[in-house]
């Protein structure tokens, strides 16, 4: 028994070390990942790895993968990451969040047609309901899955067979991927060896190149010396030839004089002439040396001046070109920054109109749905938090709202006023239904519900929002000259604000006008006629959920 226990302990240690190494490799890959899809897949793998060793990190990576899958509009990965998040909450014994995420996994799995996740999430939810002795709820969960598979024409035996077939295919693909990985690793080793060899060859070539350059420089210096010596010899020979001619002429002249003079006078005169010739020769040699020295100094000075002129002109041109390139880059960066800032506060069409003509005309839209939201008991909560915590929590919520409506290009954010958030749909030339805006409102409430659970767990105050929507005509445009803003006006905006004020925390409230446009796509709860300030009584409805099987 001791031997078996030791073997099990060793195997567990090896498995733990291997898993820890895999996590380190994945985290290193995450830091170098460039695309959102790569990051999403790595986050999902890290969530699976951390599931057994650290549920907090498993939750972080699973939620990150889920958010990126929503950004990429990948319902299959949204379903798997939601299911993984539910498993992490299950390990923390958080039944409420487990139910929420398993329900989300079921919803996205239906969109993706992922039967495996549908079966697993239904099984988890059914077991939780059974554990709470809520057998009716367990029956409804299983019945919902049964109805889905019946409508899609699939039996449980077909699904099991399909699951087995997919499992075999996945195992086959894993083996192929492992072979490809081994081949790539072998190729990487070969490339590394080739790279090392090339680096060695490059170093040797650089050394050889330096030796050749030094040798070439020495040869050029020797050739320059030889050219100077040859030039000097040629000048000496020319001077000697000229002196020889002068001497020959003098000799002929003296020969005539010798014939005319006596021997004594000839000898005296010859001595005097020899002395004069020697003096003249010495003077000529000194003058020639001085002329050559002055000529060399003048040539060197001219060459140096020309080199300095060319160098100064080159440095000036290069400095001017660099300065011009830097200024052009700065101008382009500022232009891009101003365009991004303009698009961040104005719709693209309004920004283009402002850039083209310097102003934007006000326009009327006949059917626009306006959404208002504000937080319940915001003043009381602000007194419980310090300013930094209050602004941080408010910024987190509004960033989440921005991200949610960012998934729907047709929704336009208008503004935030204190704790109120305002956006609209239909501010374009196309007829736009309010379905995506209501869906975004439900997602906002889901986010706030998840935040509420987290804040309750750590004992902190939390925000609960009222959301209201109304549909009708509005006027939209840009007002002001300094710090101008895009805004909308009209009775529709006022009515939407009244509908929001009559909503309840955690609910989405809509008017009768909006209800008539979406009643076939959402499950709505009639509230009756509700008193609204300065509007009398209005028919209002709570939106509960998106109807299953209906395209929104």
Describe the model.
The chain is of the alpha+beta class. 72% of the residues lie in helices and 13% in strands. It has helices at 2-32, 36-50, 55-72, 75-91, 95-112, 115-131, 135-151, 156-260, 263-345, 348-357, 378-384, 387-406, 435-457, 491-501, 512-518, and strands at residues 363-375, 411-417, 420-425, 465-479, 485-489, 508-511, 522-532, 536-546. Helix 1 (2-32) runs antiparallel to helix 2 (36-50). The protein folds into 3 domains: 17-154, Tetratricopeptide repeat domain (Serine Threonine Protein Phosphatase 5, Tetratricopeptide repeat), CATH 1.25.40.10; 160-260; 360-546, Alpha-Beta Plaits (2-Layer Sandwich).
- What is the CATH topology classification name of the largest domain? Alpha-Beta Plaits
Alpha-carbon Rg, integer: 46 Å
Structural class based on helices, strands and sheet pairing: alpha+beta
CATH superfamily of the largest domain: Nucleotide cyclase, GGDEF domain
Task: Report the β-strand fraction as a percent range.
Answer: 5-15%
Uncertain segments are 4-8
| Strand count | 8
Which architecture name of the largest domain does CATH use?
2-Layer Sandwich
Distance from N terminus to C terminus (CA atoms, Å) equals 62 Å
Fill in the keyword field for this structure:
552 residues; eight-stranded mixed beta sheet; alpha+beta; Alpha-Beta Plaits; Serine Threonine Protein Phosphatase 5, Tetratricopeptide repeat; 3 domains
SSE topology:
Layout: H1 2-32, H2 36-50, H3 55-72, H4 75-91, H5 95-112, H6 115-131, H7 135-151, H8 156-260, H9 263-345, H10 348-357, E1 363-375, H11 378-384, H12 387-406, E2 411-417, E3 420-425, H13 435-457, E4 465-479, E5 485-489, H14 491-501, E6 508-511, H15 512-518, E7 522-532, E8 536-546
Parallel strand pairs: 4-6
Antiparallel strand pairs: 1-3, 1-4, 2-3, 4-5, 6-8, 7-8
């Amino acid at each position: 028994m001791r031997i078996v226990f030791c073997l099990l302990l060793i195997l567990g240690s090896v498995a733990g070390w291997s898993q820890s190494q895999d996590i380190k490799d994945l985290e290193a890959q995450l830091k170098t990942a460039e695309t959102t899809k790569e990051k999403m897949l790595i986050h999902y793998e890290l969530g699976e790895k951390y599931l057994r060793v650290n549920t907090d990190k498993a939750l972080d990576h699973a939620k990150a993968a889920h958010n990126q899958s929503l950004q990429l509009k990948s319902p299959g990965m949204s379903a798997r990451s939601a299911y993984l998040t539910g498993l992490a909450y299950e390990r923390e014994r958080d039944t409420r969040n487990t139910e929420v995420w398993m329900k989300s996994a079921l919803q996205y799995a239906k969109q993706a047609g992922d039967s495996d996740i549908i079966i697993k999430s239904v099984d988890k939810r059914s077991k939780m309901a059974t554990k709470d002795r809520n057998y009716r709820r367990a029956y409804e969960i299983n019945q919902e899955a049964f109805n889905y598979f019946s409508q899609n024409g699939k039996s449980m035996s077909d699904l099991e067979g399909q699951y087995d077939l997919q499992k075999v295919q996945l195992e086959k693909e894993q083996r192929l991927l492992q072979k490809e990985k081994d081949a790539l690793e072998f190729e990487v080793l070969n490339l590394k060896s080739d790279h090392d060899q090339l680096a060695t060859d490059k170093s040797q070539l650089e050394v050889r190149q330096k030796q050749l350059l030094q040798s070439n420089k020495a040869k050029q210096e020797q050739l320059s010396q030889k050219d100077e010596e040859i030039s000097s010899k040629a000048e000496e020979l020319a001077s000697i030839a000229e002196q020889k001619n002068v001497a020959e002429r003098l000799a002929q002249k003296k020969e005539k004089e010798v014939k005319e003079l006596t021997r004594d006078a000839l000898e005296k005169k010859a001595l005097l002439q020899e002395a004069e010739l020697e003096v003249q020769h010495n003077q000529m040699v000194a003058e020639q040396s001085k002329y050559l020295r002055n000529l060399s100094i003048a040539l060197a000075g001219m060459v140096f001046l020309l080199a300095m002129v060319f160098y100064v002109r080159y440095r000036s041109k290069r400095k001017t070109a660099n300065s011009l390139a830097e200024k052009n880059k700065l101008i382009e960066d500022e232009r891009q920054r101003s365009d991004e800032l303009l698009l961040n506060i104005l719709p693209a069409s309004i920004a283009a109109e402002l850039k083209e003509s310097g102003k934007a005309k006000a326009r009327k839209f006949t059917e626009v749905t306006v959404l208002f939201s504000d937080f319940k008991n915001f003043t009381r909560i602000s007194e419980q938090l310090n300013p930094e915590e209050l602004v941080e929590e408010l910024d987190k919520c509004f960033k989440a709202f921005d991200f949610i409506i960012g998934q729907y290009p047709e929704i336009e954010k208008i503004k935030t006023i204190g704790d109120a958030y305002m956006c609209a749909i239909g501010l374009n030339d196309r007829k736009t239904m309010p379905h995506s805006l209501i869906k975004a409102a439900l997602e906002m409430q889901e986010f706030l519900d998840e935040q509420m659970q987290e804040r309750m767990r750590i004992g902190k105050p939390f925000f609960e929002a009222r959301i209201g929507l109304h549909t009708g005509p509005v006027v939209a445009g840009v007002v002001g000259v300094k710090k101008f803003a895009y805004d909308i006006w009209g009775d529709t905006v006022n009515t939407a604000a009244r509908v929001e004020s009559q909503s309840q925390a955690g609910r989405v409230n809509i008017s009768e006008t909006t209800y008539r446009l979406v009643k076939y796509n959402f499950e709505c709860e009639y509230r009756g006629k509700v008193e609204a300030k300065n509007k009398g009584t209005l028919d209002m409805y709570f939106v509960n959920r998106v109807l299953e099987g209906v395209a929104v």
